[in-house]
Predict the structure.
Amino acid sequence: MNAAFSPPFTPPDRLVATLRQDGYAVLSPQGVAEWLGAPLAQLEALHGDWGRLPPDDYLKDGGRYRTRRHACFRADGEALEQVPHRAHWQPVEYNALHGGMQRWFAPMEAGTVATPVWQALMRSLGGAASGLRDAQPWFVEAHQFRIDTTDGIGRPTPEGAHRDGVDLVAVALVGRHNVKGGETRVFEAEGRRGERFTLTEPWTLLLLDDARVIHESTPIQPLVEGEPGWRDTLVVTCRANGFQGD
């Protein structure tokens, strides 16, 4: 079995500097709590949502391993506004498997997006995007994912190593149960250097400069055969000048 490498954690006060220097940064769960100014328990209280995600009906590989919800926001400094529910769209240049089509995923639950810790997270991610680029309004898409081992194997990134066509990508591990695999891999978009590590602690947060790096997560399999296994994540993207598809 391959060794599981720990993430290279960044102190919250070095987050933007590390993003600028390396193209990515990882906050520990405790670092996320410090960064948001909220107890970690408030984030952990959101996890119940992931047990109620409806199936992703758009998987083109024929799998049944992914459930998800989706919501969109406009973040501008301290102002955060949820926009009317809309389709998720990516060009084929960024998603060869699922690009070029409108995907109408189920909306996120209203109670979740109304919680103070959720809103603090969205504002903070917008702030990180402004630190990476310039202060401006950000068009934010949030995706709740559960990848399970119903088919014996689950693929967190069936499209392979990719960019998302945005400015900032954030991937939070929300939880994992009875799975092996799910290694995160980050590579230079215009070079050969790369890093690999496994997110294991709930609310570990990876942030990526989408212009500089590509990323993927390896498939998961059940740790104990015959028992359910899953990996829950929250993926949030921030893009300047509008949502993709506008």
Remarks:
- The domain at 12-175+187-239 is CATH 2.60.120.620 (Jelly Rolls).
- The longest helix spans residues 116-132.
- The helical segments are 15-22, 29-36, 40-44, 110-113, 116-132.
- The chain has one domain: 12-175+187-239.
